[in-house]
Amino acid sequence: MTTAPTAAAAPLSPAAASPLAELRTLKRSGELAGSAARVRALLGALGDPADREAAGTLLGGPAARRALAGSAAFTPVALALLASSTADPVPPLLTTALLAEGVQPDTATTGFNQWRFEILSGAPTLRGHAPAVTACLLDDSAVFERVTDPLDADEVVARCAAFPAELASWLDAYERHVGTLAVLNTVPLGAARRDRWIDYATKARVEAAWQRMNAAVLDLAERPNTVVLSADAVAGRVDARWAAGDRMRHIAAHAFGTEFLDAYAREVARVVVARLGGARKCLVLDLDHTLWGGVVGDDGVAALKIGGAYPGSAHRELQSLAKDLSRQGVLLTVCSKNDDAVAREAVDSHPEMVLRSGDFAAFRADWDPKPGNAASIAAELNIGTDAMVFVDDNPAERGLMARQRPEVTVVDLPADPSGYAAALASAGWFNQLRLTDEDRVRGAMYRARAERERLRESADGIEDYLRELGTEITVEEYGPLNGARIAQLFGKTNQFNLTGVRYAADELARRAADGTAAFFGVRVTDAFGDNGLAGALALARAADGAWLIENFVLSCRVFSRSVEHAIAGLVLRAARDAGAPAVYGRHVPTAKNGRFADFYPSLGFAGADGDFRHDLTHLAELPAWVSIGTGEGTFHAP
Amino acid sequence: MPPEATAAAREAAELTVVDALAQLLDADEDALGPGTALAAIEDWDSVNALRVLVHLERTLGAPLDYERFAAAETVGDIAAVVAAVSGTAP
User: Fold this and answer.
1) Gene3D superfamilies of this UniProt entry (chain A) (predicted)?
2) What is the DSSP letter of A178?
3) Which CATH architecture has domain B7-86?
4) A437-459 residue pLDDT tens
5) Which one of A123, A402, A411, A578 is at 20 to 30 Å from A472 when CA atoms are compared?
6) Are residues A547 and A605 in contact, defined by beta-carbon separation less than 8 angstroms?
7) pLDDT value, residue A456
8) HEC letters along A388-413
9) Is this model's pTM higher than 0.80 or not?
């Protein structure tokens, strides 16, 4: 027997109420809008799928939606969910998973089993909704609905062979009518279908055809703007079977169980966050009892448990995971309560360490509070604290970080170190749609950047520093070789992103081909190395023949070094040389780009409220300490 | 026919149902009683009815009589279905 919620009776001790009851209280008392951080924390604390569904229903109603939207603490995003079975729990589960991430979804759905008809008939429901991501959840009925005799193995095998091509043409139609990111999944074969055959030879034959079908469905992920999730991997993450109980299958036409649907919604939420440029970029690691067993300051380097037998093996597993994350572009940093010299000696001298000080882009071993250290690391690396994931064995340190820096993602480590690596890996905070070569060498670039910072401190003035840095920029026209990186720059850059417009890979290709925009990348090198393609521009043509800078993004690795002024100066010169009457620039405020609101005025653009125009009569000198590479390309409007 | 539940069991079942409606539909528990028509509760529809069913079965740890549940018209009708499961233990 459950008792009535106690939140109303004890409003002063919210910890006593369940998270769900507290959410209800906040909604009832009209406090949702002012409690964004609390709402996110409460949703993050919900574990049970039924509670998560209830919370999403609670916060997805019209009044709660308006209140949360009014708080301006959530990034709105339009989504769509299509399914071949009943998937009613998914929209509220998505609401819960995404609100916890600071994103407020508005999820359009179509009627039961309308996934095929909706898209093939021109997406009448979805088109107006303009979803940034569409998830299409398929179960085995999508395959079997075109099988006349489910016992006829020949027919089932033939149907399995035809299904991937059918999904590919569905994706073609989706691309034509909607054109944004689509999320598909492998199709699990239900027991009710599989157990129909009684001879083992036929069971094996059908199983083989089914697995070939799913392999071909996974191959669809090679298409642009397509993500294919493995249903087995999603179910494995929560240790749940994917299928709905037989009762709900009959009562409600549910194909999938609630645990699976919750895990699926969390995975789709990760895809949405990655699409919105919210993938985390930096791992903040504690040392004692986290990267190694023991306390180096008390026990000495030789006594640390790393590698070898458990628990040393568990700490080494975490290090090895961190190393693999860094090889994919995640920045590693240390934030530890230790004396700096003691900590560095342990990192660099213990023979079983996987990570050495050269693997870390920043290293804080001191006795200052960790929330402040995290902020100073973020400033040093020129990233937001919301791009950080904090790993610390100590619940008190985790609690302090969560309270003082709620935007930092805190990994809820289990008590036993054997679960550390899995807790970090399975959360998927760093998941991205596509990796580029730039990602794989990012760590080296950031370490070179740290060297630059040291030079800045030693150089007399900022201009001396910039001269010694010897920056060179080279303009590259968009093409097949740099397209993925240019899409990623538009997708992932949050601070120097002047209009917030993000162009997906297929949009770049389409608009470049139809001549409505010209896209460029800018390569930046300096005395310390190649920063790679670090900037991207979208140029369009205004009605009066002037050039319009639709968007201009620059990686945080290189801005504030006059690179942005040099690039804009090159655009202005190219426009003048081409005889254009003017260049228009826009600044559309986002949560992160406020410090660049005056970028265009600082270059001699006139205007206000984010709309600027340069008449090209007087151009400022290009910064003398940035040289311009030649031969690759020059800016031009379409 | 299941044996009739005791008055105490019946009252406990009503609390369980009201709690479920409050949790899942954000209904105001003070305004709900055994005589409240389900159709009068905001957001009561087939999808939410199913959520309530799943929630109640999870709370009770036992399946409810689906046909009686589906035919229920008032909060009290659902409470009777719940009491039939929870209120008959010796």
Assistant:
1) HAD superfamily/HAD-like, SGNH hydrolase
2) T
3) Orthogonal Bundle (1.10)
4) 778 777 777 777 766 766 666 65
5) A578
6) no
7) 65
8) EEEECCCHHHHHHHHHHCCCCEECCC
9) no
**Alpha-carbon gap, residue A408 to A404, rounded angstroms:** 9
Give the CATH number of the domain where residue A590 resides.
Answer: 3.40.630.30
The answer to whether residues A267 and A317 belong to one domain is no
- Mark yes or no for CB contact A5/B22 under 8 Å: yes
- Of A446 and A106, the structure prediction assigns the larger pLDDT to A106
Are residues B75 and B17 in contact, defined by beta-carbon separation less than 8 angstroms?
A: yes
Q: In chain B, what are the domain boundaries? A: 7-86
d(CA A353, CA A309): 14
- Mark whether A269 and A339 lie in a shared domain: no
Letter for the amino acid at A345? E
Strand pairing class (A611-614; A606-608): antiparallel
B19, B26, B53 ranked by CB distance to A27: nearest: B26
Does residue A58 belong to the interface with chain B, where contact is any CB pair within 8 Å?
yes
A65 touching chain B per CB within 8 A: no
Collect all residues of chain B within an 8 Å Cβ-Cβ radius of residue A258.
54
CB contact under 8 A, B51 and A57: yes
Kindly state the tokens that stand for A430: 């760093």
A229 forms bridges with which residues in the sheet?
A185
**Mean pLDDT of the residues in chain A:** 88
Q: Which residues contact A192 (CB under 8 A, 6 or more apart)?
A: A249
Q: Residue A247's domain spans which residues?
A: 74-275
